[in-house]
Design goal:
It is a single chain. The chain has helices spanning 16-19, 48-54, 112-120, and strands at residues 2-7, 22-29, 37-45, 64-65, 69-77, 88-91, 130-132, 135-139, 146-148. With 150 residues, the chain is an alpha+beta fold. The two termini are 29 Å apart. The relative contact order is 0.22.
């Protein structure tokens, strides 16, 4: 179990500091699958992507764990991952399949598969690694690519 900032319903009333649309909840996190990394998050922030989910400008499946821009330590790696346990990393909001025509533009266009997965609230594989109260919980990416910190 982990603690996460969870959005369970959209909130249009601001300021959010008063209306508190996020709550800290216990969430079950599965082991990483092939090509995935489990990172112990030491710091995370909310950005405009998170806020646009909260206010409904980017409708996404709920409940949803927010805070995808983060820094932490690699704790586990799935099959095929070339990172080592203990490495410091930062996550970025740029899911890329590295197979579509958009990915061939070197980051000039958003990944087609990444955009579809983001909209559905899943990983690129179509799976979810989070459950809350016995049901699937979506996330706004804590995903590869991860950038190594010196």
């Amino acid at each position: 179990m982990i603690q996460a900032a969870v959005l369970e319903q959209r909130e249009n009333q601001q300021p959010y500091a008063e209306h508190q649309p996020l709550s800290l909840r216990e969430v079950q996190l599965d082991e990483p699958g092939p090509g995935e990394v489990l990172v112990r998050i030491n710091a995370a922030g909310l950005c405009h992507s998170d806020l646009s989910v909260i206010d409904g400008n980017r409708p996404r499946p709920l409940p949803m764990v927010l805070g995808h821009e983060s820094a932490g330590i690699v704790e586990q790696v799935g099959a095929g991952v070339q990172l080592a346990v203990g490495q410091q990393v930062i996550s970025v909001f740029l899911p890329r399949c590295e197979k579509c025509q958009a990915c061939a533009t070197g980051g000039k266009l958003p990944c087609t598969a990444g955009t579809e997965a983001y909209t559905a609230g899943t990983l690129l594989t179509g799976t979810r690694r989070l459950q809350m109260d016995g049901q699937g919980c979506t996330t706004i990416w804590v995903s590869l690519p991860l950038l190594l910190m010196p």
